[in-house]
């Protein structure tokens, strides 16, 4: 067994214990002292090895993350975002039990290569405590600050989605509805989700299922911003009008052909002797 395989086997064995979660020190060193993200990475390693999907994806709700790790949803999302930025984790919205659910996939080989390279160069390590009150001018701290600002902005935008849903949609907003909306906000953006809810109301819909059909459509065609959404809806409207115009032209053409057949039939019925009978002659 190569050292690469040994390291991979050790990581799998040490990750994902019940009640007591053992986080490999190498994760903490690689993530420069970020214990929260090291803990999330540890769980990802464990579950990525358990998935039966051929593409390596598995799903887990924020409620399950919170129960397993003891971290808040904000901290979990921040850690996931950090791992995504490092290109170690990929997230996709896929269906689970009939509903769109956020799925995760861990790039084992890239993770091992990155960790090995990082730990092989101690001079490049800068172990810091992300909860420390001390101010640091390091690039890592700047990135963490930007990530925090983005998270706060995202949560503020999500806050506007919830009251809109409660005021305009039928039924009581349950924890399931809130989690579904939160997942969509993470997969696309709160602004896009709010726009989908608005279109749902304008088209006479009053259910989350209706709005999710719109969101699925936008995600399928790669909409990531409000401009993408508007351009897609504009193109779809133009295509719909073109199809309507095409059907109208076909009906007109069929009507013209039918009229010609009727005229031809009348002329044949009006033939007298060897000549044509013309009305009025």
TrEMBL record:
Domain named DnaB/C C-terminal: residues:
164-233
Instruction: Give one Pfam hit by family name.
Output: DnaB_2
**Skewed-composition ranges (Basic residues):** 242-258
Write down the superkingdom of origin: Bacteria
Region ranges (Disordered): 234-281
Task: Supply the SUPFAM superfamilies for this chain.
Answer: DnaD domain-like
Family the entry assigns? Belongs to the DnaB/DnaD family.
* PANTHER family named in the record: DNA REPLICATION PROTEIN, PHAGE REPLICATION PROTEIN-RELATED
Q: What is this protein called?
A: DnaB/C C-terminal domain-containing protein
Instruction: Identify the species of origin.
Output: Marinococcus halophilus
């Amino acid at each position: 067994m190569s050292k690469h395989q040994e390291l991979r086997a050790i990581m799998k064995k040490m990750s994902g214990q019940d009640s007591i979660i053992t986080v490999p020190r190498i994760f903490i060193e690689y993530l420069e002292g970020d214990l929260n993200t090291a803990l999330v990475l540890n769980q990802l390693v464990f579950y990525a090895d358990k998935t039966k999907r051929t593409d390596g994806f598995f799903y887990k709700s924020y409620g399950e993350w919170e129960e397993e790790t003891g971290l808040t949803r904000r901290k979990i999302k921040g850690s996931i975002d950090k791992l995504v930025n490092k290109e170690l984790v990929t997230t996709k919205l896929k269906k689970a039990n009939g509903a769109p659910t956020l799925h995760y996939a861990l790039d084992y080989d890239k993770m091992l290569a990155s960790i090995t390279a990082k730990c092989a160069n101690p001079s490049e390590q800068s172990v810091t405590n992300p909860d420390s009150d001390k101010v640091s001018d390091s690039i890592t701290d700047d990135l963490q600050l930007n990530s925090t600002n983005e998270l706060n902005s995202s949560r503020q935008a999500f806050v506007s989605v919830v009251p809109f849903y409660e005021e305009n949609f039928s039924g009581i907003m349950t924890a399931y509805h809130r989690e579904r909306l939160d997942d969509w906000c993470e997969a696309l953006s709160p602004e896009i989700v709010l726009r989908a809810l608005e279109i749902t109301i304008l088209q006479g819909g009053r259910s989350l299922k209706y709005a999710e059909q719109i969101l699925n459509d936008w995600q399928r065609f790669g909409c990531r911003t409000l401009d993408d959404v508007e351009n897609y809806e504009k193109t779809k409207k133009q295509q719909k009008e073109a199809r309507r115009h095409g059907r109208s032209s076909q009906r007109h053409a069929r009507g013209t052909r039918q009229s010609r057949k009727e005229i031809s039939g009348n002329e044949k019925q009006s033939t007298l002797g060897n000549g044509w009978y013309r009305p009025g002659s």
